[in-house]
Structure formats: C-alpha cells, structure tokens
C-alpha cells in the first residue's frame, strides 16, 4: 500500500453535481473548466491566433462517453459551468442538435465548439489511467496549448505533471494511510474516531467544527432531495434503452404495507430502502443533481441508507454526521489504496465501495461510542462480497445493471452491519487493509472488457432491450 498520508476532504469525496457518471460527467466538466481557466491566462498574441479547440477522449471516456454524457460535460466545462451549480435540464439540451456550436470565451474573442470538435478515440493511448482526455487549442494544424487530464473516479481529476485534484498540501494532526495506522493513532492518543476525523477535516479545509457540521448537513440534504425527486418522478429514463422508472411504484407498495390495517410484513422496510436507493439512482441516470457517494454510479446506496436512517430510524443530525464521517474514512482508505473508479476496479470500486461505506455509516450510527472494531468489520464484509464485480453497463448508460445494483449494494451494506454488530466483530479474520489490497489486485487482474467499456458481460445484452 502507499505510504503517503491521506489528505482528502470529506467534501471532495462527497461532491454535488449532475449525473449520470462522476468519472464521465463531473470529472470531464472540471477538467474542461480548468482548461478554460488556463487558456484565459495565455498571452494575448497566442489567444488571438487561436481558431479551434479540440477534445480527444480515450479509454472508457471514449467507449461509453456518449451514453454517460461526457461530450455534454466537456462543453459545459468549457462554457464555465461548475458541477454543483449546473442546471441539469440545460445540460441535457447541450449537443442535442449536432449542428449547434457553443461560443467559448478566449480573451477578446470566442471560439466555437460543437460535436465535430469532440473526438471519441478508439486507438490505444499511452496513459497511466484508463480515463484520459487531451484538450488542445489550435491555430490551423499548429497546437498552441495542450493539457492532458485523467478522470480517476468519483469526479476526482488529475492533470499530467501535477498532483491529483482533491488532495491537499495541508498537513493533518493525525496522518494515516491505512486502517492499521488509523487504529494506532486512536490507541496512542486516546482519541475517538469521531474526534480524529473531525480534527483532520478542520485542518484540511480550514473550516470550524460548526462549518464542517453545517456542510455535512448540506450534503445530506442534497442526497435526500435526490431521493424525494426520484420518488415522485415517473416515466422513461433518457436513452435508447427506454427503461421505466420503478422507484415510485415500489414506494407506493411499501406505503401500502405500512398502512394501518394492512397485513404486517417484516420486509416492508427493505422495500422502502429499495425504493429510496432506486429513486436517487434513477435521478442520477436522468442527469439530475446527485452526490458522489463515492461515485455518481453508486449515488443511490448511501442516500438510500441515510434517508432510511433519518425517516425510519429517526436518527438526529448529530448521529447522522458521525455516521457520515465513518463512511468517509472507509472511502478514503479504498480510494487511497485501491480505487473507486469503475474503469480501474469494475463495479466493486463503485458499488463495492459504497456498500462498505454504507455499512460503516449504519454501524457507527447504532453505537454509543465510535468503536472502530465493528466499523472496520462491517466495511470489510461489505467489500469482500463485491470482489470481482464487473462494470458492464448496457449501451454505456448508467441504468442496467447500475440502478438495481445500487439497491442490492444497500441491502448488502445493511446485512454487513448486522453481521458486524452481532458481537462477533473480534472474530473477523480478514482486516480491512487486507481486503482492500485484494481489491486492488483483483481490479488489476480483471479484463478491461469488464471495466466500464461496455465490451462484455451484460453490455452484450443490448439487443434484447
């Protein structure tokens, strides 16, 4: 495992933006916006010579970028749009007509960008990451400026030659890069997990405790708004699959089971949970505003679990906050020592990570103290039972199997929490660090066909849809 300390903020892990894919939508939007900012700093004479901007997409950005809306995201970023403030309806209209051009500001002039300037490259590109995009400012055939970006999962990006965006140069009072190191801090400093994570977050973001808590509340609100929208919206999702939304139907079914006089069924709360997870995930598939948790493709698991925790278990804000911190630390460890990217890890990097994080959330919420043992056990169980899961979206859309997989990941998270809190957490033989190491090796050994390229698995069932 890497030895550099984790310097990722909870608010970089949980980001707000439009669906359907953090690595294909939020990441490319941020990269294009960064390119726009760099072009604005070029000397005036270079700006005046420019006559075109070209975008070259490689890896799964090319293979499934159309279905994921990568082309629209790039145009949005070049126009100066930011993920959290993007109007989803306006974004869906971008490039609807391939003949329409969009003026990108460059000094005292504008350069038109449209579908013809976005190239979905099929050739192999020598790059350290699966999702690579190269943006070029040109004058005729001459390249005036060029930047290479990598979208590495969860909306995180890295520019060639620079550290990954979302990592901080700030030092933290309790540096760790593994669960073993984290537990050593807890023991040596006699500090609780809640306090350690809060201290590090305050150091990374220069926010006060109250400001950190306020932003966690806002993130939860964004999650729950996505759930509520999804429970109301009916109809067919965008794209060629013509997939019908199911969340409103399940929600009504669950309410019918809980209605006074209805026959009592012990599984009714699971149907509520499924409805909540499908609701957020269907909103993501429709391009709505969601929270990367840790990715957009997995943006139904934790929102569904937290919505259930708030409205069925009636946890207060303080409990929900410490649960979110516990979820975040699991996400940090996975991202730091393996990956949360479907293009790197398959779906175990997305739903597997979300399920482990959700299990940690539930476990922490039910404890009177932040005992790390059950939290680690729950997360380990959550990952262990997603090892090797493929990422094989039909048609490149984040719909089949992605939407139902969010619900299944949440149910697995709930069961992992039950297993970890049964009083046998100390009996767990596999550590979280060990299973993350296995996860990384599994992702490395998986065929590229099963990692978000739509070249194998369920993706080949497109003709049946």
TrEMBL record:
Could you read off the lineage of the organism from its UniProt record?
Answer: Bacteria, Pseudomonadati, Bacteroidota, Cytophagia, Cytophagales
What's the cofactor? [4Fe-4S] cluster
Query: Which species is the source of this protein?
Result: Spirosoma radiotolerans
- Per the UniProt record, one Pfam family is SDH_alpha
Enzymatic reactions: L-serine = pyruvate + NH4(+)
Q: Which residues form the Serine dehydratase-like alpha subunit domain?
A: 189-459
Could you say which protein family the record assigns here?
A: Belongs to the iron-sulfur dependent L-serine dehydratase family.
Question: InterPro entries recorded for this chain?
Answer: ASB_dom_sf, Fe-S_L-Ser, Fe-S_L-Ser_mono, Ser_deHydtase-like_asu, Ser_deHydtase_bsu
What is the protein name given in its UniProt record? L-serine dehydratase
